[in-house]
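Hello forum,

I keep getting stuck at the same step: I have a sequence, I want structure tokens, and every attempt I make locally crashes halfway through. Rather than fight my setup again tonight, could one of you with a working pipeline run this one for me? It's a single chain of 148 residues.
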Amino acid sequence: MSVGEHFWEQKTLAEMTSSEWESLCDGCAKCCLHKLEDEDDGEVYYTKVVCRYMDMDTCRCTEYEDRNTLVPECVWLKPEDVEVFHWLPLTCAYRLVAEGKPLQWWHPLISGSQKTVHESGISVKDRVLSENNVHPDGMEEHIIQWVE
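Reply #2:
Ran it on my machine without issues. Output:
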């Protein structure tokens, strides 16, 4: 890559165009995992349960454009929310860029392939359950440790 191609190293998240912002998503789908927050200490726990609109083969939302209408509590990452990105996995490009860290080798912007996030084992591919198959009261049974 030539100088100028690594826009994420030259711009803040707030300075990025919408297409640059969207290209930062590596497609791991970890932000689409259901999360539980401890009411006492605020700690966030990830489960292996994903939204019903997640295509579990591609790790992409099947209703991306309408996701916040269909699922009002769906996470919508925006540059102005960077200060709360601490709940994102340590591997998330949005978090990495916000913290001034480099993207990982498997990120599509580095590798040139959308497949490397799956081949590296970073994505949720083949490790999740649809919320359609889990009772809402049973989410604690599906807390995971493999998020990072």
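The mean pLDDT is 89. If your local run keeps crashing, start a new thread with the error log.
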